[in-house]
């Protein structure tokens, strides 16, 4: 598979000052030596608990963060060492869809203004008539029909689902080749999620874009993604084709995660046993150990001595855990 | 025979402001049996939280309960909406308690959790000493290590704080706990842990639970019976298996078709449109503008809830 985006040993460290009185410094490895590649036309799902580094990864691949280590390639080019002109091209080809359809749209701009702005940035000589046409086509593509009705509206005149579609329209008007969608449906009512997810799937068909789909909802992620990568405290612990990952999770963390998903079928209920994870709250402080060692019921000595490597367990199914080495 | 614990009869609630009246709950009948787990589902804004507040007579200005009756069958029968403030204080927490989505942020930041749990008990007439003795047990029931009792809320994660709220909600030994989107903001593993705890409570303490959530999958996993709410009314209710395997109301069916499930290779479909504005008059079936099955009558007459099988009720003209 040709990859459009490739992360090689990417590390991102945040240093926070914590506590009002004690002022201790806390170092968090939001991304700890991450290797990952996203294929052409692929939708790669990225799941994990909150704080695991999903958003940081999404920002990093869009060149919106500096890194402490590693490199990120877009079509083979190192995005962190791009010249101005290359950066401009890169920005044209990549876009982000945000979680919050309320906060991410400028309230004093009309829908037309919001959606046309990125297009105009990258098509400086476009005639206004062409821009209008382009905006209308894009509105149609995200299911805002009839599009003419929406042009003059402001965000506060739209419902949550309509706003999220405007956010998607803004992201796709430049025909981006790669999109990061960060929790794009988690703030929408259940009844609205399906349509937005279907629009994202159609986009891949129509535009051939690749996508990094970030979500904490595994059912939603499986619905849209070809492959799923599982993150835990800054490390990718498992990657496989979506159905394979859900049916045959190998990593102890993935197993816990999958077994905690409620299935909408009363014949397939949970029992009353609690998931097998050890209690406690941890962050990744950069130690050379398995990120799950503190919570893993199968932890062994070697899990704390060094990090397990990502190995293939057949079927393009990769896992980083000593139980499989 | 199931014994009813709480009976809700034709409850109506309005939120009144200068220029408009929102009819948030428009006549709901509901029953919670002893040792039963009830799920209440529906899109946001359909009145779930407002309805739940009435069970504790917690509706406050600008809200007003304009009609209906709530009967609690405890040691004696209690007419909840007629309770005087002092009796109401005893009823809340001692008979019925509540956990909200936001309650993990409602803990007092400068008070140790031990004291917060004890305060609830002391306010309700427990002796200081008894209250102190109960703290460890309550934390254990909620799935927390009692050694955490000296912590302040900011030292705990969201999931742990929500467990503290479970401990507080159980402090005065209620027979009914209402959880309103109590796990919505938590990660799935933590959610599963808290759900397992709550299920055990029913088994071990024999309490009843009401789960209010927009997450239908969660309800399939825990509820005995389900109420589907739309535009301030119950549009369908029945045993959980009926609701999931034999749904009748077009809204219930649409909701079930809108959610993805792992390992189900089915195209999901959204529900077109949005729920009606509850400050405007509703003519006919409130779901009619979004319903693919709507016919003439639907736009003129609002359907009543009718029985269509063992404990299964639906309000839709397709079944009248
Ligand atoms: N701008 C920032 N400054 C300091 N710490 C941050 C910042 N952004 C993220 N972090 C920390 O990095 C970790 C990963 O965060 P994030 O990428 O937002 O995770 P997720 O999206 O999976 O919830 C967390 O511990 C978070 O607190
Ligand atoms: N304090 C309030 N003042 C005015 N309107 C309110 C208030 N609380 C809720 N409402 C309105 O009542 C309706 C039902 O709300 P709510 O009970 O919160 O529904 P749900 O819990 O199902 O989301 C909504 O239209 C909401 O806007
Ligand atoms: S490497 Fe060790 S600690 Fe990490 S998941 Fe595997 S068994 Fe558990
Ligand atoms: S009454 Fe009519 S509009 Fe309402 S749900 Fe039934 S068929 Fe649809
Ligand atoms: Mg995030
Ligand atoms: Mg609510």
Structure commentary:
The complex is a heterodimer of chains A (325) and B (320). Chain A contains ten helices and twelve strands. Chain A is of the alpha/beta class. Chain A has a single domain, classed as Rossmann fold (3-Layer(aba) Sandwich). In chain A, helix 3 crosses helix 4 and helix 3 runs parallel beside helix 5. The model of chain A has no long low-confidence stretch (mean pLDDT 92). Chain B is of the alpha/beta class and 320 residues long. In chain B, 30% of the residues lie in helices and 25% in strands. In chain B, helix 3 crosses helix 4. Chain B starts with a strand and ends in a 6-residue tail after the last strand. The mean pLDDT of chain B is 93. Chains A and B meet through helix 6, helix 7, helix 8 and helix 9 of A and helix 6, helix 7, helix 8 and helix 9 of B. The structure holds adenosine-5'-diphosphate (2 copies), iron/sulfur cluster (2 copies) and magnesium ion (MG) (2 copies). One adenosine-5'-diphosphate binds next to strand 1, strand 2 and helix 1 of chain A.
Q: Which sequence of SSEs, written as H and E, runs from N to C of chain A?
A: EEEHEEHEHHHEHEHEEHHHEE
**Tally of DSSP helical segments of chain B:** 9
**CATH homologous superfamily caption of chain A:** P-loop containing nucleotide triphosphate hydrolases
- Beta percentage of chain A is 15-25%
**Spatial sequence of strands, sheet with the most strands of chain A:** 6-7-8-3-9-10-12-11
Please provide the count of β strands of chain B: 12
Low-confidence stretches of chain B: none
Helix content of chain A: 25-40%
How many strands of chain A? Answer: 12
**What is the overall shape of chain A?**
globular
Which two chains form the greatest contact, residue counts included? A-B, 44 and 46 residues
Average pLDDT of chain A, rounded to a whole number, is: 92
Number of helices of chain A: 10
Structurally, the number of domains of chain A stands at 1
What Rg of chain B is obtained from the alpha carbons, in whole angstroms?
20 Å
How far the N terminus sits from the C terminus of chain A, by CA atoms, comes to 25 Å
Residue runs with pLDDT of under 50 for 5 or more positions of chain A = none
Helix content of chain B: 25-40%
